[in-house]
Amino acid sequence: MPTIGLNGFEMYFEDRGSGEPLVLLHGGMGIGDDWRYVFPRDPSGYRVVVPDLRGHGRSTSPDEAFSVRRCADDVLALLDHLGIQRAKAIGLSLGAKTLLHMSTAQPARLEAMVLVSATPSFPEPLRDAAAGFTRAAFESLSAAERDALRARHVHGDEQIARLYDMMRSFATSHDDMAFTAAALGAISARTLIVHGERDPYYPVEMALELVRGIPHSILWIVPDGPHGPVFGTMAEPFASRALAHLSTSA
To answer: What is the mean pLDDT of residues 33-50?
Structure first.
């Protein structure tokens, strides 16, 4: 399996096709293979790079506290390893927050990006939901639910317990996701912000804050959309619009 040792853990990734680099970053508790539900076939003309973020899926868990900023450092290190100086990218939830860190830390690395269900900071609805991700909550899952998680995160129950710790840490985190208008203003990537109208964790106001702060950005509010409104019946229209955005010249 393609893995690379970086930043204290083994990152699993897939590197497929040829053309412009396109990085796909999954959401929290997700895995890179989730993008198959959006892109059943890799987009034509792209070299598609799809990692499992730290602690997720086939990547191992480093011995340090989780932060989205560290996820961004990991992905930048992966791009360095692959010799990719500039890329386009799509990120969902945790993946979108990772792209916010990447695009503010090293703006030149991203030419264009799509942020799905992103936020500049953690609002109270997210903090309330995150607080419920206790290890006891994992242990209370049904056998079928635990087996489904084990099939996706393959390094055992301790890996999954650490993912629960990650989610719970968002309830009390205040400095990891704290993007000011000035910070967002440093982003040079052409940005499409995709947000569900009825996202229960990140109110639409969070998306408005992003589009007002990111210079070259547009906002698509998905009517009646939930958190992560890119699956099921929304997969095809999302894929079409996202790829059209990425292919548009500056």
So the answer is: 97
